[in-house]
Design a protein that fits this description.
The structure is a single chain. By secondary structure, the protein is mostly beta strands. It contains 6 helices and 24 strands. The protein folds into 2 domains: 138 residues, Acid Proteases (Cathepsin D, subunit A, domain 1); 182 residues, Cathepsin D, subunit A, domain 1 (Beta Barrel). The longest helix is centred in the middle third of the chain and has 8 residues. The N terminus and C terminus are likely disordered.
Length: 372
């Protein structure tokens, strides 16, 4: 099973593929929710190495009530030049229109967040040297980087291209081994600090809030509550009182300040800001695609229990990889850029964008418990 370069990618916990024969569900008086004919499904019958693993499979319901059902299978899965035999979920039933036009979910999450029946997310499967050498081409550096723009995104497998950034990469330890969480100590807009930590909170050493890096969330999602006394003011409400165009955000992550340009957080197509309030009880910030359009975001899973996050401002001259390009050509995003013994490959990812979603991202269903 080859995961093609134009697969729409979401950061998530495990990997799933929509298979041929998946259902089209009609709800609300005949309104189609999921349309299987908009995807390019995986055809198990066309693979000689395909095998069922668990016939009982999985039945998942996410925080926004979206549901996926299917079974666990095993096959040789390829991402770019890297491939390995691994388990994945075959989706046979889906009731969410979010999956229209999407072929599946690429597993770039952490092992501790995976289902018990699918122990290895894809990045770990293609970097596992204990498998059959005849069925694998192994990634030597368990690192990936995501960059994005308004129309597409780019996945760097095995490292990052230094031409893509304008300053040095700033590294920090992830604050969780389940979610890609980083400490945020400040978020300012037009000179106004939105994260005013209370005196009592500061006295107890609470001067940061977790930020969850998630490319499957479109916008910057910030609290609209006092977070149990953490804040003196509601950050989102304060932002709405001072909101205006043509002004950047400044966010301090891991002790370093980064700019979120106006072009990254304002959606011209919708003529609206891509900033939303978090759902009640969610005591963190969701760093969605707004961040991936502003920064190069690197994930180093060399040591899974202590993941390293790298952040750096984007080089404005850098262009994402072109569909037809197959050679090295700086600033035009072409693919064969070798880094170290394991190599580094760039893969183009297509993107769908619509009205910003006013709900918690479904792939963070355990984030509330983790943050608490």
């Amino acid at each position: 099973m080859n995961l093609s370069p134009n697969l729409c990618v979401l950061l998530c916990l495990v990997q799933f593929s929509i298979i041929d024969g998946g259902e089209v569900l009609e709800l609300n008086g005949g309104s189609t929710v999921f349309m299987a004919n908009t995807t390019r499904p995986f055809h198990p019958s066309k693979s000689l190495s395909f095998a069922h693993v668990l016939f009982l499979g999985f039945d998942l319901t996410y925080a926004d009530s979206a549901g996926l059902r299917g079974y666990i299978a095993q096959d040789i899965v390829q991402l770019g030049r890297y491939y390995a035999k691994t388990k994945f979920g075959c989706i046979t039933k889906c009731d969410s229109s979010d999956f229209n036009g999407i072929d599946g979910i690429l597993g770039l999450g952490m092992p501790d967040a995976a289902l018990a029946s699918i122990p290895e997310p894809l990045l770990f499967a293609i970097s596992d040297e204990t498998g059959d050498p005849a069925n694998q081409y192994i990634l030597k550096r368990r690192i990936f980087t995501i960059l994005s723009d308004n129309n597409a995104a780019e996945l760097h497998v095995g490292g990052f291209d230094p031409h893509a950034i304008s300053e040095g990469m700033h590294f920090m330890k992830c604050t969780s081994n389940v979610e890609y969480s980083v400490p945020i100590s400040s978020l300012t807009f037009d000179g106004h600090e939105l994260l005013n930590f209370g005196t009592a909170a500061q006295a107890h050493g609470r001067t940061t809030i977790p930020g969850i890096l998630d490319s499957g969330t479109s916008c910057l999602v910030i609290p609209d509550s006092y977070n149990s006394g953490l804040f003196l003011e509601k950050p989102y409400s304060k932002l709405m009182n001072v909101m205006r165009r043509k002004v950047p955000f400044y966010i301090t992550i891991g002790g370093r300040q980064f700019e979120i340009p106006y072009s990254s957080w304002w959606l011209d197509a919708n003529d609206s800001p891509c900033v939303q309030p978090t759902p009640p009880g969610f005591e963190g910030i969701l760093l969605g695609d707004v961040i991936f359009r502003s920064l190069a975001v690197m994930f180093d899973l060399t040591h899974p229990q202590v993941p390293i996050i790298g952040l750096a401002p984007r080089n404005p001259m850098y262009r994402l990889v072109d569909r037809s390009c197959g050679h090295m050509n700086d600033f035009k995003g072409c693919v064969e850029d070798q880094v170290g013994g394991g190599g580094m490959e760039k893969i183009r990812m297509e993107k769908r964008r619509g009205t910003p979603r006013r709900r918690v991202n479904k792939y963070l269903r355990r984030a509330g418990a983790q943050l608490s």
